[in-house]
């Protein structure tokens, strides 16, 4: 089987997802949850993991059944109408923006050890700008050449 397009493999996507979960204040928020609920919080983590597994399994089945360009907002538009696809797309975008800010804040708090004179909002803004530039089309073309 010949590979016709460049892209990320399933393992790379899975590891990126895992990194996002861990980076998104997972360990920072864990201490608050453990204080409030005690060790029983592990049960909720296991249940959440199972739920995420089923959601991603369903998305992979949809992708295999209908391999077209786009994300799950495309699938929602195809199955539930353009309006629902639009809403799903914007909800996804909002979630990414909010998680990026929490990840940048968590990283800024951790980097405060090495850069004590830089404020958390400035460092977080620099991290967000850096990640955005790395994901921009200009940088992608540079990396492919």
Structure write-up:
This protein has 145 residues and is an all-alpha fold. It is built from seven helices and no strands. The protein has helices spanning 10-23, 26-37, 41-65, 72-80, 82-111, 120-135, 137-144. Helix 4 (72-80) runs antiparallel to helix 5 and helix 5 (82-111) crosses helix 6. It is globular and about 50 Å long. The protein starts with 9 loop residues before the first helix and ends with a helix.
Number of helices: 7
Termini Cα gap: 24 Å
Major sheet attributes:
none
**β-strand amount:** under 5%
Low-confidence runs of at least 5 consecutive residues: none
Radius of gyration: 19 Å
How many strand units?
0
Q: SS-based structural class?
A: mainly alpha
> Order of SSEs, N→C?
HHHHHHH
Described by the principal axes of the CA atoms, the overall outline is: globular
User: Mean pLDDT score, rounded?
Assistant: 79
Range of helix content: over 70%
Name some characteristics of this structure:
145 residues; mainly alpha; 79% helix; globular
SSE layout and pairing:
Elements: H1 10-23, H2 26-37, H3 41-65, H4 72-80, H5 82-111, H6 120-135, H7 137-144
